[in-house]
């Protein structure tokens, strides 16, 4: 488990799960705690980013007899992580999970909070725990958490950081395409019909993810046109064309390079970061993916909240 070393002047701890795909260097710099997601590959249990790197996971996935399966981090693991933070002297934990749509991670994080305060009544009033449903995947919450870690260093309050993150999650949209649709068919997370028809006709679906819901927004003929269509569609979705963009890439680096160039040209500024798509994305859409995030129009109360559980 990546337990952050307490920086004496830092009382706010940012916490998340490994589906955020935050790079090790950013975790270290930002003092971010990333809890690993359990993954089963051919009936053996592993922890993402602990037992293998993302690149190694792609290799294992290619060699696996069955499609690997992720499970959620348990409420007990969350409760322990909160206790670690409390004992380290943090006064605030801001914990963001992968989208609550199709995952029990958010619910487990909320239950873990309840368990922690029941078992440690002395913590009441001494530590605040805020749990946010990102409503998204990968850099959709990894990137703003890294930005939030810079705010912590600059002395922002917990309330300011929660407001920033909440606003980001309320606007973030991911636009992506998979060049390995056979995985999408097996996992069933992306509308199967689109995957099937696409294969037969040589079409690639361009898919949007908003509040955890995937939707095919376009079908593109020919792999060489995919990147252009991702960027063009994302551009129409961006509420502020000057807002930061981020590129997400799977096992084929060239797709990421092409997207980076196309984004820079269309938006007039380069993507702020490049993320490597981890297991949660790769299992559901295969390792050959390319995606980008933009900030669209703000959505109100579209994600899970603590009081819902």
Tell me what you see in this structure.
The chain is an alpha/beta fold. The chain has two domains: 12-37 and 72-170, Rossmann fold (3-Layer(aba) Sandwich); 172-295, Hypothetical Protein Tm841, Chain: A,domain 3, CATH 3.30.1180. It contains eleven helices and 13 strands. It has a six-stranded mixed beta sheet with strand order 10-9-8-13-11-12, with helices on both faces. Strand 3 (38-41) and strand 4 form a beta hairpin. Helix 7 (181-187) packs antiparallel against helix 8 and helix 7 (181-187) packs across helix 11. It is globular and about 60 Å long. The model has no long low-confidence stretch (mean pLDDT 93).
In short:
The chain is α/β, with parallel strands linked by helices.
Indicate the overall shape. globular
The percentage helix is 25-40%
Which structural category do the helix and sheet elements fall into?
alpha/beta
Alpha-carbon distance between the two ends: 26 Å
> Could you name the CATH topology of the largest domain?
Rossmann fold
Classify the beta-strand content into a percent band: 15-25%
Q: H/E order of the elements?
A: EHEEEHEHEHEHHEHHEEHEHEHE
Helix count, DSSP H or I runs of 4 or more residues:
11
Number of domains: 2
CATH hierarchy: architecture of the largest domain: 3-Layer(aba) Sandwich
Summarize the main sheet: 6 strands, mixed
Low-confidence segments, given as residue ranges, are none
The CATH class designation of the largest domain is Alpha Beta
Rg is 19 Å
Tally of extended strands? 13
Q: Strand sequence of the main sheet, in spatial order?
A: 10-9-8-13-11-12
Question: Mean pLDDT, rounded to whole units?
Answer: 93
CATH level-4 homologous superfamily of the largest domain: Dihydroxyacetone kinase, domain 1
């Amino acid at each position: 488990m990546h337990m952050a070393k307490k920086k004496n002047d830092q009382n706010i701890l940012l916490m998340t799960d490994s589906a955020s795909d935050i790079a090790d260097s950013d975790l270290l710099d930002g003092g971010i705690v990333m809890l690993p997601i359990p993954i089963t590959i051919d009936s053996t249990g592993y922890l993402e980013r602990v037992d293998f790197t993302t690149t190694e996971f792609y290799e294992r996935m290619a060699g696996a007899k069955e499609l690997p399966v992720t499970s959620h981090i348990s409420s007990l693991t969350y409760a322990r992580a909160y206790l670690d933070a409390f004992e380290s002297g943090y006064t605030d934990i801001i914990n963001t999970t992968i989208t609550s749509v199709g995952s029990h991670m958010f619910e487990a994080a909320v239950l873990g909070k309840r368990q922690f305060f029941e078992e440690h009544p002395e913590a009441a009033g001494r530590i605040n725990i805020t749990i946010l449903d990102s409503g998204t995947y990968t850099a959709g919450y990894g990137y703003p958490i890294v930005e939030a870690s810079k705010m912590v260093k600059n002395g922002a309050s917990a309330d300011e950081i929660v407001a920033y993150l909440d606003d980001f999650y309320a606007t973030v949209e991911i636009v992506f395409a998979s060049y390995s649709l056979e995985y999408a068919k097996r996992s069933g997370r992306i509308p199967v019909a689109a995957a099937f028809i696409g294969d037969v006709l040589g079409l690639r679906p361009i898919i949007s993810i908003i509040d955890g819901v995937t939707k095919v927004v376009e079908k593109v003929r020919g792999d060489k046109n995919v990147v252009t269509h991702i960027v063009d569609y994302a551009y129409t979705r961006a509420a502020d064309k000057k807002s930061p963009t981020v590129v997400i890439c799977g096992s084929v680096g060239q797709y990421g390079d092409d997207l980076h160039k196309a984004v820079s040209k269309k938006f007039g500024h380069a993507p702020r970061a490049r993320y490597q798509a981890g297991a949660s994305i790769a299992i559901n859409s295969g390792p050959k993916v390319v995606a980008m995030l933009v900030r669209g129009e703000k959505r109100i109360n579209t994600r899970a909240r603590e009081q819902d559980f």
